[in-house]
Amino acid sequence: MKFTAVSSFLLLAVGFSAVVAQHSDYQPHYLVGLLNYDAVPDALKNHTSGTYIPFGEAQWSESTEVPFKDVPNVGFSDMEFYHDDTGAVVPGQFYCLSDNGFGTSDNSGDYPLNIHHLRIQKPFTFRHGESTFERYTPVELMEFALIHDPNELIQWENGADIQVTYKIPDDTWQDYRELRVLTGRDFDPEGLAVINQTCAMLGDEFMPAVFMVDPSTGIVLSPFVRTPDINEDGSLSTDMFLTTVRDKVHCSIEDLEEDACPSVASTLVDENIEYRKHDPSGGYEGFSVLADGSIVAFLEKTTGDTTLNDEPGVRVYKIIPGDCSVGSAPVFDSFMGYYPFEYGAENIADVSPIPGSSQYVVVIERNGFPNGHLFPGAGMPANKVCIVDLTSRDANMVFDKKKCVLNYHAIDDPWDVDGNGIFVYGHTQVTNEALIVVDDYCIVAGTDTNYPWTNQFNLEEDQMENWQETRDARFMVVCFQEPIFNTDMVSKYMSSGSSGGSGSSSSSSGSGTPNNDEIVVAQQENAGSRAMDSRSVRFMMFATAAASLALCLV
């Protein structure tokens, strides 16, 4: 009996290493700092919103703040580089895309879709001379654009038009109606791929579909294009397309005119033989331009009200954008493969290319954490940043080269840049839906707040020092110690060994100073014997001591 106890404990220690492996290969990094965006652009002020949200206190469905006299800022579902007139990337400036507003087609018919041009720059000095800065640096609004369709390019196959032609909340929306502003009943834009200063492609969740837009003005440049289904061999179907219960093609014009079709019954979609049903919150979430000019487009999930739940991962498509002239629509080129989730994750949150690469992208994946603050009911987070090779697939068309290099809930903060005396930071939000790789070393990440349901831990205001900052959009900047996103380095890194470790330590050099190639190669040659991080060391010390004690008792 005593021997069994000892054996069980040792097996537990072995099991710990196996469980944390997955594709985790966390790399040395540090928090540069946090930012906060709380502005309401002038174009959103004095416009009624939230009239579809019932008054009440139920999380995710009701609010005691409705209706809103100004359209609120609801955070961002994607962010991309801002370019100047010459086409050059402007450091620290980004286009940031709002999602559909309040989460569904049922409650967002009075939310105008929009794109913000933001300056997101954080002061950082490695604490030179003990210099410190504010915990949250304000994000600056540079420009703002309502997504609108003056050329009347957005039309559904059954003749359906956009929401403002049928119903607006009140006279404060007359200017939006004249502009033909798109709303959260029309689309749920979760993906933005900026090609140049005046040309981008949006990815939608409600059908799902894609269309072209000028991000500087918000003007729609093309009709939407539906997502084709795929055949067993991975080729694109020519006669079957994805759809959801929020797709207007399933509504009658009479119901739309009466504002009586925010969505349809799931069974109605099942009966339509021209379409294959997917979850209405499972469309395009990861969306980016690759170095070759094509767009990589990740669906969000395989769960929910979908017929794709037997697939081994989320679908990834390759799309060729339109030529940016009015009426030039994007074209689906191919199905690239399935992206496999880590244990506990079930949603793509965003995707960013590695600058200069068409082979590697960086993915942030998540689950539904948090759900309150009472353990274990709140669940456990599954927010990881992973690098995936889009050119390597197994026999089932699943991407098989993947390494997860960062956990959003265990960010190292060695210089205590948030000034709280704690040297780890957790980027806590149910939907961390904006991510961009800015150079060889660093990422910027942002939140979709899900306003007005921002208090996802169900806390009281007096329990939080930064109540306002967590209700508004937040950003964090994280940099890695090594140039992990350099195109040459990432190729060596992804080609070396397996991603079985739970962490990695900084490399040390002997005589002389190795160059970056030597550093990366050395790190990977020693991947199998890499020193464990401090948490793993502490665990193994505890396991060894406990096992020794147990043996003494035998």
Automatic annotation (TrEMBL):
Annotated keywords: Signal
Signal peptide positions (record): 1-21
Domain of life the protein comes from: Eukaryota
Domain Phytase-like: 75-392
Record's keyword annotation contains ATP-binding: no
Matching InterPro entries: Phytase-like_dom (IPR027372)
Residue numbers spanned by region Disordered: 496-516
Any matching Pfam family: Phytase-like
Protein name: Glycerophosphoryl diester phosphodiesterase
